[in-house]
């Protein structure tokens, strides 16, 4: 019997669920699995959380067998997904797992702090963009789209700004002859100033016969603005808000440098045997 099978055997008899420590104690007392370690609870916890619905981290397993019953005993209480009826299975899928800090695996903690670090860097990027001049932002968004693979090459983009009739801020040529273009509108707004429907309509009008456009802002778009994009006929307009903008900058290495890379590991069960 594997660790996973031992956990499932214990939880199949406990419909209300058990904590990780309780599951470990049952496995030991029922002699379902022999641990060759001084800390069997950590082995059980790792298998539980890797196969737990709603928990996603680098070594998490795509097949889920457990879910977390929240709000009990101040720590995660695990139950077997197979033990619940189909009607409540949807509730489990949509439930956000609640765990205390002590429940988290080391790789989960790494993921949590990485996400916090990423959000901090994104906020710094927006702050520095807002404290730069407008022309800097226009050059930034053109460079970003080129880095994402749009255009026929590195010199396929240009900033046009006020020199272009209609207020288009940038153009990406998808072929060397400029027969197929992407128009860019860049609005460097504070977070409190959202882009509305009228600005989308103005951009669409400025595009004239060009069918592809990208509207980029450091703030956000209103619901009416997003609805306006969906209702456009004959034009494809992509909206990029501040959050997506900084995400794309991180992915493309625009305005940031990677200073350290950490690896996370999982056991190779094909080599070492089923765990």
TrEMBL record:
Residues 131-249 form the Restriction endonuclease type IV Mrr domain. Coiled coil: none annotated. One of its GO terms (molecular function) is endonuclease activity. Keywords: Endonuclease, Hydrolase, Nuclease, Transcription. It holds the Pfam family HARE-HTH. InterPro entries: Asxl_HARE-HTH, Restrct_endonuc-II-like, Restrct_endonuc_IV_Mrr, tRNA_endonuc-like_dom_sf, Type_IV_Methyl-Rstrct_Enzyme. The keyword Thylakoid does not apply. Residues 1-45 form the HTH HARE-type domain. This is Restriction endonuclease. It comes from Pseudoflavonifractor gallinarum.
